[in-house]
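The authors assume throughout that readers already know how a fold can be written as discrete tokens. Each protein is reduced to its one-letter sequence and a matching series of backbone shape codes. I therefore recommend that a typical entry be quoted early in the introduction. For illustration, here is how one protein appears when written out as sequence plus structure tokens:
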Amino acid sequence: MSLQPCHVKNVTIGSTDPLTPAPLVLIAGPCVLEDEATNHLIASTLVALCDELDMPLIFKASFDKANRSSGRSRRGPGLDAGLGMLGRLRAEFDVPVTTDVHEPAQAAAVAETVDLLQIPAFLCRQTDLLQACGATGRAVNVKKGQFMSPAEMRHAIGKLQEVGAQNLLLTERGTFFGYNRLVNDFTGLGDLMELGPPVCFDVTHSTQLPGAGADVTAGRPERASLLARAAVAAGVDAVFIECHPDPSRALSDGSTQQPLTALPGLLRTVQRVRAAVADAGIATR
């Protein structure tokens, strides 16, 4: 297996040497873009914290949430307004940014502003979407569908490579077992890491309880730290954490987002886990 780091602006995710892992990368931000003041508060807090911890950061927020539980749920500011918000945050904080791409026609416009194009889990088999994103030349993060085995993700990799995409990231975000719980298969996480591209673990979405709410997804946010520690010990290259100053007021996924005040302790903990694995000489792949 040949390890293939993913380069996103000034951030490198993954390493070519499993015994010398690159720094753990944080992909974080609100689920969906909020008002300008809230976006700015979240970004400034994350940038300051990651500077303190010397942890590479990619800021994440969606301009549209097209897969909400209810048609009445708020979806976000839309493509044009959302890209404007992300572009301003990218410029002010000199931080790479990422967002979901839902349709092939959006890929080129998103790539003009965004450093890492994210394929939502439910769309990870969509050939036209994958290849439109891959053809932009930007890095692409493919979230593994909860309905797919890790081995099946080699097809998504192949579709992207067919159009010349080289900077690829895979994200594990859990597997459905049909009882209102999203279960993580850590044997499968190991299988995913053997495919070559670096792997990110989606901490907050992995705490979801799909279908357990009325018109929204419920969650177990208190389990985020447990899952993050386990995934980092397993050897992932990045963690994905949605966060908000007050999750109860978040426009999307408030039941799973972490409060900003929880991040310093959580990130310091996973950095210590990462260091312990490296010090023990344990290969991450």
